[in-house]
Automatic annotation (TrEMBL):
Residues 8-218 form the Cytochrome b561 domain. It comes from Musa acuminata subsp. malaccensis. Pfam families: Cytochrom_B561 (PF03188). InterPro entries: CYB561D1/2, Cyt_b561/ferric_Rdtase_TM. GO terms for cellular component: membrane. Residues 1-24 form the signal peptide. Keywords: Electron transport, Heme, Iron, Membrane, Metal-binding, Signal, Transmembrane, Transmembrane helix, Transport. The lineage of its organism: Eukaryota, Viridiplantae, Streptophyta, Embryophyta, Tracheophyta. This is Cytochrome b561 domain-containing protein. SMART domains: B561. Its cofactor is heme b. The chain crosses the membrane at residues 54-78, 90-115, 127-145, 157-180, 192-211.
């Protein structure tokens, strides 16, 4: 119930962002992207208003699929190593909040594109963007239909949820690069700075994603020379007994 209320409130917060765009629909210059007689599209005539609209559109998608969605995936991955119920709930709701904000930003970018640009779907960026927006909204629907743990469909649901989440991130980042390339071709302006910043951000997120499940192992390797494995009275090692204690619920320690 709390999760559903949060999503509903977030959708309501999106409306004030979109209403000014609807009001300026008639005064907005559109991107003409039609091909005539096999000729490439006309050069893009940038005005300050159109330049701002393109920048906002690109920035919203960059933050959404290039940063927030991967961060949401990392948060839920970190939760797999947490055994405290309270921390698990906190990480789960953090995952939901981050992904919800990412969906709202991507939706705002889509609405800005529909209002301000002519969408003839004559290029890869627009076609891939349409598929991306559909997948972005299918993902939360799949999340709400999560089966209970232990049921037969839980494994199928988890695989589908993971594939959608990962696919949206990969397609989203790829489409941002394609959009930058299309913008450079149409406007003859350099996008090397934006491409470099996007590459740096994606690289940092990728490194964190790859290291987050190995960090504890790396730290243990650094301390292995200072630790001594001593047998326990039950026949196991002291380290094994410590690892077993990690699986005990948080309330067990509170009661002790």
């Amino acid at each position: 119930m709390i999760l559903e209320n949060f999503v509903a409130a977030s959708l309501l917060l999106l409306l004030p962002l979109l209403l000014p765009c609807v009001g300026s629909l008639r005064d907005t210059p559109r991107l003409v992207q039609s091909r005539r007689n096999g000729q490439p599209p006309n050069p893009l005539q940038l005005t300050p208003q159109l330049s701002t609209q393109i920048t906002v559109h690109a920035f919203l998608l960059w933050v959404s699929v290039g940063f927030l969605m991967p961060v949401g995936i990392i948060i839920i991955r970190v939760s797999h190593r947490v055994h405290c119920i309270t921390k698990l709930k906190a990480l789960f709701y953090a995952h939901v909040i981050v992904q919800t904000v990412a969906i709202l930003l991507a939706t705002a970018a889509a609405v800005l594109s529909v209002i301000n640009f002519e969408n003839s779907f004559s290029n890869t960026h627009q076609r891939l963007g349409a598929a991306l927006y559909a997948l972005i909204w299918i993902q939360p629907v799949v999340a709400f239909l999560r089966p209970h743990r232990g049921t037969k469909l839980r494994g199928v649901w988890y695989l589908l949820h993971w594939l959608l989440g990962t696919g949206v991130c990969v397609l989203g980042v790829a489409n941002v690069y394609i959009g930058l390339h299309t913008y450079r071709e149409r406007s003859s302006r350099s996008v090397s700075l934006w491409a470099s910043l996007l590459t740096a951000a994606v690289s940092i997120v990728a490194v964190v994603y790859l290291l987050q499940d190995k960090w504890e192992y790396l730290m243990k390797q650094a301390r292995v020379g200072d630790e001594q494995v001593t047998p326990s009275p039950l026949g196991g090692s002291h380290k094994e007994s410590e690892m077993n204690q990690l699986w005990m619920p948080c309330f067990f320690y509170k009661q002790k």
